[in-house]
User: Fold these one by one.
Assistant:
Number 1:
Amino acid sequence: MNPEAYAAKRLKGVEMSAIRLISDRARALRAQGHEVALFSMGEPDFDTPAPIKEAAKRKIDENRTHYTSNRGAAPLRAAIAERILEDTGVRYDPENEILLTCGGAEAINNGLAAFLDAGDEAIVLAPAFVSYRNGIRLCGAAPVEVALRPEAGFPVCEEDLEAAVTERTKRIVLNNPSNPAGTVLSVRSLEAVRRVAMRHDLLVFSDEIYSRLVYEGTCTSIASLPGMRERTLMMNGFSKTYAMTGWRVGYLAYPAWMDGLLLRVHQYSTTTGVTFLQEALAESMNRPDTLAAAERMRAAFDARRRLAMALLDEIPALRYIRPQGAFYILIDVRGTGMDGGQFARRALEEAHVALVPAASFGGDCAGFVRMSYAAGEEEIRAGLARLKDWLDAKRRDSHVG
Ligand code: PLP
């Protein structure tokens, strides 16, 4: 059977993730006995904080294993509303303005599916996490990329954004702090987005999953700007801040008018999340010892960020965009004579360093690769030392040649 003959038309253009392909190849090299630095995965290498694990075990023993409300367990919605208020200053009603989802991934997909039809357009500030453009295509809609300038902070140019708006535009998608750039949008950039959204009556989808992983300056939620709470769908989750990628808990926070729309999609996708996890998180997420554990991880990521920048500073052919948040650095490889795709391929095969070509995130990033420093310090030292030796050797060879 030819799968393409049976495939939904919406699947056309939906891509397999380059990140997975690279990481799979890196693991295959490891299985052959090579030491490989895995800088390709956006996944904390830390363990989930103990209070969360203890609470989850207890909830299973208490048989908290039945369906919970469609919106998700009420005590967790209340705990999340408390955290959002403290972190962003925006108040959400846990009763009808917060929806718990299976990971950030479900939050993204529901947040797109409830508002986009075939023929609609959604603007994506790029470079951007790959799920947005593919999720938009899964709705039958078209992603329209607005490339941000590859410079400090990846500022938003209001004219570029304005020029991308058409009669079919329904929303703007942004990610702050950014995967893949590790940069944080300034209030000035957010104001530019706000003005365009207000002028054209657009909704904003704001993925803030890295909002608690900020090392320089502060990260402002666009929902906190005047008039924006009413038109912003904020997404966040537990995967990154609490090192819980395998637990699959995320959430959406939004104005009450969106509630019925989102519930209808959620009801017929996953119905509810996992009861004992949600109840365990309700008890443990805001505990001082849990928050202290999350802060220790944040501090460790910051130390790794500084280490990675210091080691990259010693590699003359490479430059980078100074990261302020998340756990990514965009490295400019044009000084090596390669583009990001060639560099990533050869670095993996020849130096055993797994990086992701930044072109896979869209935007003007063909000359960049993304490095994730969620790997351990030793791996960062060893991987960047191999990268340096490999580039030194290449330079010597080309001089000899
Ligand atoms: N949003 C961004 C920007 C991400 O980088 C990721 C994961 O890498 C997600 C959302 C998805 O998170 P989750 O693992 O909770 O589905």
Number 2:
Amino acid sequence: MCGIVAYIGQNEAFPVLIKGLQLLEYRGYDSTGVATLNGTLNLYKQKGKVQDLLNFTANKKTDGTVGIGHTRWATHGQPDNQNAHPHVSHSGRLSLVHNGIIENYATLKTALQNKGYHFSSQTDTEVLAHLIEDIQTEQLVPLDEAVRLALQQVRGSYAIVIMDKDDKTRLIAARKSSPLAIGICKNGEFIVASDAMPIVEYTNDIIYLDDEEIALIDLINGLKITTLDNKSVALNIQRVDLSPEMFGKGKFDTYMLKEIYEQPSVLRSMINARLDPQYRILFDELLPHMDKFLKARRIIITACGTSWHAGLVAKYLFENLARITVDVEYASEFRYRNPVLFPDDIVIAISQSGETADTLAAIELVKEQGIFTYSLVNAVGSSIARLTDAVSYLHVGPEIGVASTKAFTGQVTLLSLLAIHLGYMGGKIPTQQYTELSKELEKLPQILAKTLICNAQTQKIAYLLKNHKNALYLGRGYNFPVALEGALKLKEISYIHAEGYPAAEMKHGPIALIDENMPLVVLATNESQKEKIASNMHEIKARKGIIIAIVDEHDTQITQIADYVIVVPAIAEPFSPIVSVIPLQLLSYHTAVALRCNVDQPRNLAKSVTVE
Ligand code: M6R
């Protein structure tokens, strides 16, 4: 939540900041601000998106070779010009951008107010600007030391960049539980950002700050990193494999549609990299830990949102194929529940961004108890990836649309490969079945490409759905988590209320909602449950509900009962979620477009949820 970017070098900072903020807008988009420095401070803040700020600054002075910028997702204080970042210290000397939450801000604020400091916003962030300046002036210490002493008093999470009006050769950056990366350019420039996206246009050499690290970025003396307790840190420069083209929309109007259409190709790359010519599945990163997996008493999967849904699919996969007990936990509940853990448990975190605050905290909790942790993450170098004992990357490319699409299918595909691998290694899957399942997965990208043909049909049905206030999504077995995911997709981007249910649970409450105005999306692609699903559909029809059924190409039975049908190619049942979710992604997409909603940046949401 919130994106921050900063530049220091020989060129104009403003265009770098604006471009960076546009790339970080997925992290929050309720207000924006920049400050550049050229003798005087040019500070501009606007409610709304980066484009609003750009319009506002069109004829204004923005020059300067150092600057900081911010795109906000409000936590403390409503989205308006006053609460937008950068925030400026009492004397106007320091300006600061912040991503995170200062939990003890109220206590710090009262102490500063008692000393005569005046606050002009309702944010927690402004406390930091005044506190740092207070220490700097009272203790007569350099800025980096004042930042260090201030952060020692702070509880909560932060990624911050601070600029001093009187020194255009330095920036100070620091982080705790919110991400921050520093790009190191060959010509001596530095770009600091919440993730690598704004950086890779200028350099692929990046340092990801660790928790409680402070960077002194000095144009003359270079970069120095120290810890909060003032120990020097060796510079760990990583070369990231990302290019600016990956962040465009290509021929599509929206990131979401582009990412839906990317699914066949990104999954082809994943599967090709994981299968050898004999159809053996490769998980080299888990080789040193295989014994732990095979002897695990239980796997606990922890995640949030769509990633949690992928975890729920994994429960079916791991239990069916590898016969391993799996619990799936919302990270936000798990971390505060004092869960019973055994030394031979394995905890798996699933996260597209690798920065979700609750998932990160859940992993910190289990690590403290010495439990082995493993993560499935898309964002390379992210906090969760670095914290866990082992990580497998999805490598599906940057996902920028707030609604998760290719990350979900990437997660489920990787979890399918892992379930088969563990099943085989643990002797639960015979060689012949192992090869058959691997071969079936190899066909998946082609099957997904065929699935996308349903786009036109989903668009037609979206015209029906858009006129309704509610929808129910029903599925059984492997398709139950897909029902949850379909409902989440619809509500988050079209604002139509939707709920997912196991189809048989309908009789225990939700059936009361069904009448001629209730659309129900029924997932009916799993062969083993078809009879049962058909019975559930008869129960709906008896109450005049409108049925939109997702069926496979061999279906004859469900088609007879449903009002509308979306046909997808058939695939082995364990992999059916990866196929059946595609029409649901498209259905929500077209419904949102028909309702003129902003599909990439839905209201109140942000892509990366780095606060609790
Ligand atoms: O980055 P993560 O996978 O940890 O994010 C978790 C959720 O915030 C995320 O999946 C969210 O539910 C999706 N954007 C919904 O489409």
